[in-house]
Amino acid sequence: MLGMGMTEAQSIEELRCALAESEKRYAELKASIDARVREVAKAEFQAEMTRVSSELAHDLRGPLQIITNSLFLMERKPGDTTYYPKIGDALKQATGILDAFREYYRGHEIMLMKGNVNKIIEKSLEDVAVPDGIVVSKSLDPAIPDTMLDLGKVKRDFAVLIKNAVEAMPNGGNLTVSSYVDGGNILVRIGDTGSGIPEAIRSKVFIAFGAKKRGGYGLALAAAKRNLEAMGGLISFETETGKGTTFTIILPIN
Question: What contacts 25, CB < 8 A, 6 or more positions away?
């Protein structure tokens, strides 16, 4: 009996050693996988930044060339003020491009503060000029709780979506904004009755410079996506040709 007991004890100890070895190998493998994931993510980010920087340089070339040409002509014609407006417009365009890029590039940098989504929606609506031909319909759940958000970034992101919705309805229409609680999340929906997002660019909507429009830089929605994801949120859209588009934002209650 004593010999059998020692054999059992030895077997248990061997199993413990084998288990410890397996756990060690798992930890090493997991560390290796995690390192590879970080490496790939870093490489993908670097590739993305290279592409975006190239697009940025391309977009800046236009206004900077206007400024250069205007200054050259002003030197040849001292006192001629006709070029000042051109320089002013070009500087405004260049500044807008750089500001949009900065917002996109720094989308992962957030400063959380307690705030209320409904109040942010109201302030975002105040920031956007809505023409008389557009009817605004709001359905904001009063039970929406306060949560931790980067209040400035969320306000800008909502304003971008509202502005896009307004611009999608040049002949008038309905702008709908709603909020409600779904489980542990706050959902915000911003919709329009415009012509819908063209099928050719639907897959590029959240890609930097992927879906440029006249007067835009193709960075606002990409920046909004980065901002919201950095806060643990999500953004998606549904669109139908001739009927309009609705963006849905999901923000965690925390």
Answer: none
- By the 8 A CB rule, do 121 and 115 touch? no
Inter-residue long-range contacts of 207-214, CB under 8 Å, 24+ positions, other chains counted: 208/48, 208/51, 208/52, 208/55, 208/104, 209/51, 209/52, 209/55, 209/59, 213/167
Using DSSP's 3-state secondary structure scheme, residue 191 falls into strand
Q: How far is CA 27 from the centre of its chain?
A: 34
pLDDT digits (tens, 9 = 90+) for 148-188: 999 999 999 999 999 999 999 999 999 999 999 998 999 99
Q: Where are the domains of the chain?
A: 1-105, 113-252
* Architecture of the domain defined by 113-252: 2-Layer Sandwich (3.30)
For 64-106, the pLDDT digits (tens) are 888 888 888 888 887 777 888 888 888 887 877 777 777 777 7
User: Taking CA 176 as the corner, what is the angle to CA 171 and CA 180, rounded to the nearest 5 degrees?
Assistant: 170
Classify residue 235 by burial, with Cβ atoms within 10 Å: 0-12, 13-18, 19+.
buried
CA dihedral sign of residues 228, 120, 211, 235? positive
Give me the phi and psi of 99, to 5 degrees please.
Answer: -65, -40
- What is the C-alpha R_g of the chain? 27
For residue 252 the two structure tokens come to 């965690």
What ranges in the chain are assigned the alpha helix state H? 2-76, 84-105, 117-127, 151-167, 220-230
In sign, the C-alpha dihedral spanning 32, 35, 41, 47 is: negative
Cα separations in angstroms, 137 against 36, 177, 192: 48, 6, 10
Residue entry with tokens 């963006």: 247
- Residue 27 reports pLDDT greater than 90: no
